[in-house]
Amino acid sequence: MASSNKSIYAALAANLLIALTKFVAGFFSNSAAMIAEGVHSVVDTANQVLLLFGLRQSRKEPDATHPFGYGKELYFYSFIVSILIFGLGGGVSMFQGITHIMHPDKPGDPTWSYVVLGISVIFEGSSFIIAAKEFNKLRGGLSWWRAITKSKDPSTFLVLFEDSAAVIGLFIVAICLYLGHTFHIDYLDGLASLLVGILLICVSLILARESRSLLMGEGIGTATKQRITEIVEQDKDVIKLMHILSTYQSPNEIVLMLIIAFKTDLDVLSLDKTIVRLRNQIKDEYNLIHFVIIQPDTFLGKVSHNVQLYI
């Protein structure tokens, strides 16, 4: 979590430093593309603030109304961030682009735009490198895309996607700005804004998909399920592990429910001891599993009958 905070603060600092300069450059050079980039930076700045707020909210202690804690707050605010990128970032940029393609303005002096673009590439590129390095530490041996889809901490890949989109957007604007002024093609400025908008909408759809999946409740992976099955079924008092149900409450907290068929000759005291033993073994091996709920079943071939719930 500390690593994700580092990348968020780096992105926040970069966006704050360049948002105002983009607007100033866009005003003096009469560039819709630079205005679109300014909107992009403002949206990114708001996104970093929302992510930091979501991280803070997710650390709140459980209470009577939220017995499993507030971990999903991070997933909620990550989803809001993806909507903001779509609506404000992508929507405004596309609107500006279409307007200036249909009614192109005569561009002003591009000098300030080039200066700001150069500075922006340095700051946004630095932020992207920090985010990429931090995410690289977390992905292990997985490919980048596989690590993103498997990650349960949206604050890591959200910043990575935002920064990569920002860098790509800056190069799009720079190329279109150069071609437009060199060959006197006024509508290329609007085209750059439109392309930035399309880029942001594509990124927001990917982020919304991942954030929605986490918000709806993703469970543990196949390898973890297999290992938990081994732990449970190796116990001398267990006949069979019937079902495994799980959900991530936060990137660092899992709720696990096991439906287990125990041997029928166990008395209540022995059953209690077995359940405590299994729960401790699982929590000792997987420190992210904070809650283990065990429900005994009577195993009758393919048919099982629920008996009682133990937490």
Automatic annotation (TrEMBL):
<feature type="transmembrane region" description="Helical">
    <location>
        <begin position="34"/>
        <end position="53"/>
    </location>
</feature>
<keyword id="KW-1133">Transmembrane helix</keyword>
<feature type="transmembrane region" description="Helical">
    <location>
        <begin position="7"/>
        <end position="28"/>
    </location>
</feature>
<keyword id="KW-0472">Membrane</keyword>
<dbReference type="InterPro" id="IPR040177">
    <property type="entry name" value="SLC30A9"/>
</dbReference>
<feature type="transmembrane region" description="Helical">
    <location>
        <begin position="187"/>
        <end position="208"/>
    </location>
</feature>
<dbReference type="InterPro" id="IPR058533">
    <property type="entry name" value="Cation_efflux_TM"/>
</dbReference>
<dbReference type="Pfam" id="PF01545">
    <property type="entry name" value="Cation_efflux"/>
</dbReference>
<keyword id="KW-0812">Transmembrane</keyword>
<dbReference type="InterPro" id="IPR027469">
    <property type="entry name" value="Cation_efflux_TMD_sf"/>
</dbReference>
<keyword id="KW-0813">Transport</keyword>
<dbReference type="InterPro" id="IPR002524">
    <property type="entry name" value="Cation_efflux"/>
</dbReference>
<feature type="transmembrane region" description="Helical">
    <location>
        <begin position="74"/>
        <end position="92"/>
    </location>
</feature>
<protein>
    <submittedName>
        <fullName>Cation diffusion facilitator family transporter</fullName>
    </submittedName>
</protein>
<feature type="transmembrane region" description="Helical">
    <location>
        <begin position="156"/>
        <end position="181"/>
    </location>
</feature>
<feature type="domain" description="Cation efflux protein transmembrane">
    <location>
        <begin position="9"/>
        <end position="216"/>
    </location>
</feature>
<feature type="transmembrane region" description="Helical">
    <location>
        <begin position="112"/>
        <end position="135"/>
    </location>
</feature>
